[in-house]
Write a structure and sequence with these properties.
single chain, 401 residues, alpha+beta, 60s Ribosomal Protein L30, Chain: A, two-stranded antiparallel ribbon, 16 helices
Length: 401
């Protein structure tokens, strides 16, 4: 598996695959062809169908500036992944220098094909959760020690920066009011939810409102192009910060411990990324919100001081009960149903950790995390393309703009 640095990235919304990935692609092409006089980009599949709402053409044009760029939007997908594009590079005589086939494969990760293809750097020799749990059990180390063993002792500094970036996105989102950009004219509600939580007497309602307001704050920031952390993607970026911020503010967990919890959650996200997908265009929203819910459930289970088996149980529940979740953004914007799903996903993560804590000592879970990852991958394959970030089905079709 790759480093968790490739999973947790600080960037801007609204989409890791449609905004962050294309931005990285444009920067890489600029570095390789500084002599280019113009570009033409063929956006394919999901990048074409929801690119306008996700600001794909905008971010590419902004990154290539001042060199001019034109676009073609083609609904057919390229062979490797639904988020594909071909970048045509032209010289001063307007002759094509190169046609580059490249993919944005989720979480801001990119993959060039052909002679520009790069081999991902593998940091972890274990690729499944079963392998990881067996390794730490045999060595008698914690999951956090396992992360540091392969990431390096200074990795806690990176995680500290990631945690601060997550908290920044929560606090920034809680301050803002107004309308999120785009045709939906969606009102920001995180600040009002937070104030409502403060004025709610019933403790159970208050706690859940706090968590929801934190998730909404980040998801609204993401939808409006603000700074967030991919966890594992932009579209699901509110779930992990909501749980971590709740643990810090309401449960008074110190940041040094939250860094460890963040690493544990990241491991489960990494396993999904390695063995299935974290791209909504490839696997539906189960790959994004489902994975984020599993990560946050594992995080919360670690905070509850559960053993590794029960942490796995919590993560498995977090993913299992999001199976089949469709990616059908209305108008191509990462707003409806995406923002609400971040709030709902954070509450599901809390519930999964609580259930693992209560049920795990009564009976052994019969479904492993690796098994549910395999099921999620197969479910994603079976989903119609209309429900995989194309805005051709589901809510997007019902409320088409």
């Amino acid at each position: 598996m790759e480093s968790l640095r490739e999973l947790f990235k600080v960037g801007v919304g609204p989409s890791s695959s449609h905004t962050m990935g294309p931005q990285r692609i444009a920067k890489k092409v600029m570095e390789m062809y500084p002599e280019a006089h113009r570009f033409h980009v063929d956006l394919h599949g999901s990048l074409a169908l929801t690119g306008k709402g996700h600001l794909t053409d905008y971010i590419i044009e902004k990154t290539f500036a001042p060199i001019p760029v034109t676009f073609s939007f083609k609904s057919d997908a390229l062979p490797f992944h639904p988020n594909g594009m071909i970048v045509h590079v032209f010289d001063e005589l307007d002759q094509e220098i190169k046609a580059i086939e490249v993919y944005s494969i989720g979480g801001g990760s990119i993959l060039f094909k052909g002679d520009m293809e790069e081999t991902p750097v593998e940091v972890y020799p274990q690729n499944t959760m079963d392998e990881i749990l067996k390794y730490v059990d045999e060595k008698g180390i914690s999951l956090y020690d396992y992360v540091l063993e392969y990431e390096g002792e200074d990795f806690d500094h990176y995680l500290s920066d990631i945690l601060e970036a997550m908290f920044f996105s929560v606090e920034n989102g809680l301050k803002k009011e107004g309308i999120i950009h785009g045709k939906l004219k969606l009102k920001r509600v995180a600040k009002s939810m937070y104030q409502q939580a403060q004025n709610t007497r019933r403790e159970a309602d208050r706690e859940r409102l706090f968590i929801s307001s934190y998730a909404y704050a980040v998801a609204e920031e993401n939808a409006d192009g603000g700074q967030i952390v991919t966890a594992p993607t932009c579209g699901a970026s509110g779930i992990m910060p909501a749980i971590l911020y709740y643990c810090h503010k309401q449960l008074h967990i110190e940041k040094k411990d939250l860094i460890k919890a963040l690493a544990i959650g990241g491991l489960f996200g990494n396993v999904v990324k390695k063995n299935a997908t974290i791209s909504g265009a490839d696997g539906g929203c189960q790959a994004e919100v489902g994975t984020a819910c599993a990560m946050a459930a594992a995080t919360m289970a670690w905070i509850y001081e559960l053993n590794n088996s029960l942490i796995e149980y919590a993560a498995e529940m977090g993913l299992e009960h999001n199976l089949g979740l469709t990616c059908d953004p209305v108008g191509g914007y990462v707003q409806i149903p995406c923002i609400e799903r971040n709030g709902y996903g954070s509450l599901r993560a809390l519930d999964a950790a609580m259930l693992a804590k209560q049920l795990g000592y009564l009976r052994k879970n019969k479904v492993s995390f690796d098994a549910i990852v395999r099921v999620m991958k197969e479910t994603g394959k079976d989903l119609s393309s209309a429900y995989k970030e194309t805005s051709l089905g589901g809510l997007a079709k019902e409320f088409g703009l």
